[in-house]
Amino acid sequence: MKPAQLLLLLLFQSQVSQTSSTPQIVNGALGESVVLPLQFSAEKRIISIVWLHNGMSIAFTQLEGQSSLTYITDPKWKNRLSVTNSHSLQISNLTMADAGSYSTHITTMTSSVVSTYDLRIFKRLPRPQVQVDSLSCEHSTCTVTLRCSVEEGGENIIYEWTKTGPRTVLTQEGSVLSDS
């Protein structure tokens, strides 16, 4: 670590810190990219930003005037991390190992602020298949039962059905929907 980086980290540790209480949940798709948005008041002059994954430093940005230098501090992230113009963290080619807790430590001239994120990685699923399980009509009322399935979906699939008509009565149990 360069002397300037070490000095900034020491300054960061000695200042008053404000921490966001609830992590921001960010969802990403396996193999794709995601941005962890840095939300910070533009009026405050940022000196440095440290990004951490599960408590380990992965990126450090040093700001001087209008320019900034970003260092990827963990070599395994070298080709997959970038910092946007707004200093948000972009992670590309997501893997399941990327899921977890992220935090950013922003140091200004007068304070430091910690923001936290919870990154969840999901496998993008193929188009679902919907089939009619049963259909019955009595006394001007029809009841239909639909079943939804996804190839290679596994057991952690959440099915969500949406009501489309005002006279619809829906009964939902996971992948099965009954409509009267």
Taking all Cα atoms into account, the compactness measure Rg is: 24 Å
The largest sheet is:
7 strands, mixed
Distance N to C terminus: 67 Å
| H and E string | HEEEEEEEEEEEEEE
Report the top-level CATH class of the largest domain: Mainly Beta
Quaternary state, please? single chain
Low-confidence stretches: 5-17
**What's the mean pLDDT score?**
81
Number of domains: 2
Residues in helices, as a percent range: under 10%
Q: What is the tally of beta strands?
A: 14
CATH architecture of the largest domain: Sandwich
Q: Which term fits the overall shape?
A: elongated
Q: How does the helix and strand content classify structurally? A: mainly beta
| Topology-level CATH name of the largest domain | Immunoglobulin-like
Measured by DSSP, the beta-strand proportion falls in: over 45%
Q: Number of helical segments?
A: 1
Structural features, described:
Helices cover 7% and strands 49% of the residues. A hairpin with a 5-residue loop joins strand 7 and strand 8. The protein has 180 residues and is mainly beta. It has one helix at 3-14; strands at residues 17-19, 24-29, 34-36, 46-53, 56-64, 67-72, 81-83, 89-91, 100-108, 112-122, 129-138, 141-149, 170-173, 176-179. The radius of gyration is 24 Å and the shape is elongated. Strands 1, 2, 4, 5, 6, 9 and 10 form a 7-stranded mixed sheet that branches. The chain has a 4-stranded antiparallel sheet with strand order 11-12-14-13, with no helix packed on it. It has 1 helix and 14 strands; from the N terminus they run H-E-E-E-E-E-E-E-E-E-E-E-E-E-E. It folds into 2 domains: 3-122, Immunoglobulin-like; 129-179, no CATH class. The N and C termini lie far apart (67 Å).
